[in-house]
Specification:
537 residues; alpha+beta; Immunoglobulin-like; 6-stranded mixed sheet; 5-stranded mixed sheet; 12 helices; 26 strands; elongated
């Protein structure tokens, strides 16, 4: 795979996989079937290792995004698309596995989901898996393997498109979907992998495909991550930063702030000096105190005893890579006031793009007409009435916004009352519903005929009651023999006449797949929603 060397363990698993697959053509003994169980366990262990690497890579991506969203934004967004596409394909493969186990072992899907390969009683059964995956057509196009092949091809193509033009030439389509040319015939990818393949081997092949899907994901996300130089963020600009826990402190309570140098190192703690800065702000005129340091941060604490606005300033001294001391000035202030009840749900400090967000703003002891409120990031904060505002967030890439509040004092001066940070998010992704069905469900033919179409709506826990509409989706019917009817592309949420004709043919045991469901939210964002799968009982 381009850009990623296989580990010795991965090479060993690959060799075992090839040898066991070859032995299947000669004999299906209990030892060979048990060996497939061992290979599957090794695949699971390798997948877990790859998953940890992927999580670490996404964590690094999120950190870089938090440091410089403007530079990293486009690559981070592509990485999220890569993650979504990989998860979608893995979910489909898991669904195929569950179908194989449920039908071969003759158990419910909920039971099949919990069964390990080693516990299967019909590991050597190949009739049912072949019927499901290959179907009755000689080229294997009548089963789920054809659907899987199409999805894998689309996955690899879409993952390649996430890369830059320079990286595309190094993209390796790890999953080979080519047919095999034999002496007297052509063996398609579907039949070559799944025709007369025992249940246990089919499951291992699907697990191997999932590992390949993860490898493609890791390769693409790694290339995206290398598209920018993460080190730039730590060393291009250094400035002292004061991060107060709160600018508003209750009388008698303790004020605390973190004083850091941006892009700091926890292994090199700074020296923080509190005192009066000189005119050039390059040193102190007098030293009043020093701060304790912890994990690279200076912790400033001061017990409050009276009301008012208090300022403090000083210098942060830090050793550079050459051992030289560099000093950076800082200034900050905090407000001490008498207690007044404020209850804030800190986990809900969110403003959504594309809608009007109601915001209440007040300062104890200050009339609403003397309050000046602004919002950062080019967003809009519109005053509606006394203390009532509406925040309209723009379509930029910034993920946070600060609402700053100032007050006109009695002497005519203007004083800052502090600010509050908000997360700026897109509206959540809506969920697709077939009537009241989401995900997968079993229904009767009568229930199927009564359904009118696909709808989309936000989760009930979402605080805003907003509309969203379905623009299109694909409908595929696979009968209980594994035959796939010609899919229908449905425009809009309601069933088209073509869709109704297709659904009128369904019978007991058939599966209906509603996939590629596209919906538009209140903010104008287009979402691809999760598939809905129903079985006719």
């Amino acid at each position: 795979m381009a850009g990623q060397q296989e580990t010795p363990r991965q090479k060993m698993i690959g060799m075992m996989y090839l040898v066991l697959t070859a032995l299947l053509a000669l004999n299906i003994s209990k030892d060979i079937l048990d060996a497939f169980v061992i290979v599957n366990e090794s695949l699971a262990a390798s997948s877990e290792t790859t998953g940890k690497k992927m999580n670490a890579l996404y964590t690094d991506f999120d950190l870089a995004m938090a440091i410089d969203s403007e530079k990293v934004g486009q690559y981070w967004e592509r990485s999220q698309k890569a993650r979504e596409k990989a998860q979608e394909l893995n979910t489909f493969i898991d669904s195929v596995k569950t179908t194989l186990i449920a039908k071969t072992e003759k158990v419910e899907r909920s039971v099949a989901d919990t069964m390990s390969i080693g516990s299967l009683s019909k590991k050597d059964d190949y009739d049912i898996p072949t019927n499901i995956l290959v179907g009755e057509k000689e080229d294997g196009s009548g089963g789920l393997a054809k659907v899987l092949k199409t999805k894998i091809a689309a996955y690899q193509s879409s993952m390649r498109e996430l890369l830059s033009e320079g990286d595309k030439q190094f993209f390796n389509e790890r999953i080979n979907l080519e047919d095999r040319n034999l002496e007297d015939a052509t063996s398609t990818w579907e039949t070559n992998n799944f025709y007369h393949t025992p249940l246990v081997a089919s499951l291992v092949i699907l697990s191997k495909l999932q590992m390949d899907v993860a490898d493609v994901e890791y390769d693409v996300v790694s290339k995206l991550y290398r598209s920018f130089n993460k080190k730039d963020f730590f060393f291009d600009t250094i400035a002292a930063t004061v991060l107060p826990q709160s600018n508003y402190v209750l009388l008698g309570e303790e004020y605390q702030s973190d004083i850091i140098v941006a892009a700091y190192s926890t292994t090199r703690s700074p020296k923080v000096r509190i005192g009066k800065l000189n005119e050039k702000a390059d040193d102190l005129v007098s030293l009043e105190d020093t701060c304790l340091t912890e994990n690279g941060k200076g912790i400033f604490r001061k017990r409050t005893s009276s009301e008012g606005i208090f300022t403090y300033e000083g210098m942060v001294d830090l050793l550079n890579s050459e051992g030289e001391t560099q000093s950076y000035p800082f200034r900050s202030e905090y407000i001490v006031a008498r207690p007044s009840l404020v209850v804030s749900p800190t986990k809900m400090n969110v403003l959504y793009r594309g809608i009007e967000n109601p915001v209440d703003i007040s300062v104890p002891g200050v009339p609403s007409e003397n309050i000046i409120a602004t919002i950062s990031g080019g967003h809009q904060l519109i005053k509606k009435s006394n203390g009532k505002y509406v925040a309209k967030m723009n379509k930029g890439k910034n993920h946070t916004a600060s609402v700053s509040v100032s007050a006109r004092m009695a002497d005519g001066s203007t004083r800052s009352m502090g600010l509050m940070e908000f997360r700026v998010l897109r509206l959540p992704k809506p969920q697709a519903y077939l009537g009241n069905i989401t995900g997968s469900e079993k229904i009767t033919t009568g229930m199927c005929k009564a359904l009118q179409g696909i709808s989309a709506r936000y989760d009930e826990s979402f605080v805003f009651d907003l509309p969203c509409s379905v623009t299109r989706y694909d409908v595929t019917v696979i009968n209980k023999r594994g035959d796939v009817y010609s899919p229908v592309r449905n425009q809009g949420g309601s069933f088209s006449e073509d869709t109704k004709r297709l659904l009128s043919k369904v019978k007991t045991g058939d599966h209906i797949y509603y996939e590629n469901i596209m919906a538009v939210g209140e903010d104008g964002q287009v979402h691809q929603l999760g598939p809905i799968v129903v079985k006719i009982r």
